[in-house]
Amino acid sequence: MLAAFATSFSPDSPLDGLQVGDAPEPVERENWTTVDVRAASLNHHDVWSLRGVGLREQQLPMILGTDAAGVAPDGSEVILHGVVGADGHGVGPREPRTLLSEHYPGTLAERVAVPTANLIPKPSGLSFEEAACLPVSWLTAYTMLFTVGGLAPGDSVLVQGAGGGVSTAAVLLGVAAGLEVFVTSRSEEKRKRALGLGAAAALAPGERLPRRVDVVLESVGRATWQHSVRSVRPGGTIAVCGATSGDASPAELTRIFFQEIRVQGVTMGSRDDLAALANFVARQDVKPLIDSVHPLARTREAMSAMVDGAQFGKIVVTP
Ligand SMILES: NC(=O)c1ccc[n+]([C@@H]2O[C@H](COP(=O)([O-])OP(=O)(O)OC[C@H]3O[C@@H](n4cnc5c(N)ncnc54)[C@H](OP(=O)(O)O)[C@@H]3O)[C@@H](O)[C@H]2O)c1
Fold it and tell me: Which positions, given as ranges, span the membrane (predicted)?
């Protein structure tokens, strides 16, 4: 089958190790299901894998991709929760876990196998391309806003870096839930587009907010960390899911303890959270924002837009 996979690592030139070509069919396992992938979305996780983060040399070649929407053998339309338990079943809340494309082959392929427990009905109002955006970026944004952030209608949130998959999800989910959403972006064009999604204000990196917010969603790391710590109210929460620009330095510990700021790491979310997210977008008629859709065979071009940081929304590939 056709798939996009990592064949080597390059921290500085991640696309060098990307190959699109023939790959083995998924392995059949007890209580697993092989799904015909109709769409998969790219995540920065794929770029990290090609840079050599989270994968070891002996695991290569590894099919990339952590989320997808497709069709199960019984004809049902599904989305895939990409978190798998240590011994190959759907993961419980406190056990070791792995994401698709780390230990088990990923979703940038014509077919992918996952634990049957990881299948969730696709919201019928979403296309396969839109639904493929939910299991990683959108689930992570959902967890940061509601599960970890505990935000309620009328609360305020700052989303760092307007253009990314997690960030556009956070803006759209936050607006749909009645939050006051502030964003930052390096790009004036992306700031304008974030306002078009319903953000209350869109600021240049480091610009002072009108007032401090209840929660900050941090996925950028070094480039925005100081601003995040300065923008959250005393006793507020910074939810961290990534560090695209590198690790934060300095850590701003003095302000964190003196202002009693809670810093909470987030990795994706549970299967139940993904099911709740699917219900939420269906009921509120929220559609994931897609930057572009590419054939699986053109994954290299699709991935290079993500490496350049050019996208606004999710980049999707279709087999
Ligand atoms: N823990 C988890 O479960 C989880 C889940 C999803 C993602 N992540 C991580 O979260 C990060 C974002 O993921 P994604 O898939 O949304 O990536 P993405 O679509 O590539 O977005 C990258 C984001 O970073 C911003 N950015 C990049 N470099 C920047 C810089 N030097 N200065 C300021 N902003 C910068 C961009 O904002 P502008 O272009 O608008 O400035 C954009 O919002 C990645 O590091 C990813 O690995 C983690």
Answer: none
The helix (H) or strand (E) run that includes residue 21 is strand 18-22
- The answer, yes or no, to whether any atom of ligand 1 lies below 6 A from the CB of 164, is yes
Tens-digit pLDDT profile for residues 90-107: 676 677 889 999 999 999
At CA 299, angle to CA 294 and CA 303, rounded to 5?
100
Q: Are 174 and 158 in contact (CB under 8 A)?
A: no
Number of Cβ within a 10 Å radius of residue 239? 27
User: How far, in Å, is the centroid of ligand 1 from the Cα of 90?
Assistant: 27
For ligand 1, atom 39: residue with the closest CA? 163
CATH of 136-265, one of 3.40.30.10, 3.40.190.10, 3.40.50.1240, 3.40.50.720: 3.40.50.720
The pTM of this model reads: 0.97
| Helix intervals (H) in 177-236 | 188-196, 225-231
CATH fold label, 2-133+288-318: Quinone Oxidoreductase; Chain A, domain 1 (3.90.180)
Among 33, 106, 102, CA closest to 66: 106
Is any atom of ligand 1 closer than 6 Å to the C-beta of 165? yes
Q: Does 264 contact ligand 1 (Cβ within 6 A)?
A: no
Residue 242, CB half-sphere, CA atoms under 13 Å: how many? 22
Is the beta carbon of 185 within 6 A of some atom in ligand 1?
yes
Atom 18, ligand 1: residue with shortest CA distance: 164
Whether 266 is in the pocket of ligand 1, judged by its Cβ within 6 Å, is yes
CA 148 from chain centre, in angstroms, equals: 16
Q: Choose the residue to mutate in 139, 220, 273 for probing ligand 1, maximizing ligand atoms within 8 Å of C-beta.
A: 220
